[in-house]
Amino acid sequence: MIKWVALRSAGPRPVPRPVATPLVWAAAGGTALLLVALVNALLGPGRPWLALTALALLATALGFCARFTAAPGTAALCWLFLNGFAIPPAGTLDWISHRDTIWLSCLLTATLVGTLTARVTHARAAYRTITSAPAPRSALTDGPYAP
Question: Helix and strand tally (H, E) in the chain?
Fold first, then answer.
């Protein structure tokens, strides 16, 4: 049986559900690898700040459709590809405390900003659809002294 549903309903729209965390992490791993490979191929290795910028934008975009609990894993996956392949010699992981702490905090902040922006945007859109009904007119605006 076919049920006809109006494409544009006047009722409130539900807030979109975030994507599952393993799916976000899979997208982060695959896309981070491609971004770092693209930066290395086009601009050459040894430019970690460009790779960090690209990965921070990726983390923000992934945070827009993810839960808050996915943020640390997303940031860690992006950092692994940044540290492993954007810094010569490629393929070796190392920890330099001041540099890697800044990079991890930058990627985590980018992911959290994306997630927070999505939550605020969706909450405002849901609030606007619920409160879009016109307010009832009061006696002061309908009376004989109305402007």
Answer: 5, 0
Question: Scanning the structure block, which residue is given the tokens 């006809």?
Answer: 4
Can you give the pTM of this predicted structure? 0.77
Q: How far apart are CA 22 and CA 31, in angstroms?
A: 14
User: What b/e string do you get for 19-57 counting C-beta neighbours within 10 Å, with b at 16 or more?
Assistant: eeeeebbebbbebbeebbeebbeeeebeebebbbebbbe
Task: Please name the residues in contact with 44: beta carbons below 8 A apart, sequence gap of 6 or more.
Answer: none
CA 66 to chain centre: 7
Structure-block tokens of residue 52: 């960090």
Whether residue 56 contacts residue 104, with contact meaning beta carbons closer than 8 Å, is answered with no
Contact 75, 58 (CB under 8 A): no
Q: CA 77 to CA 17: how far, in whole Å?
A: 23
Q: pLDDT tens digits, residue range 7-62?
A: 665 555 667 788 999 999 999 999 999 999 999 999 888 889 999 999 999 999 99
* Total residues found in the chain within this entry: 147
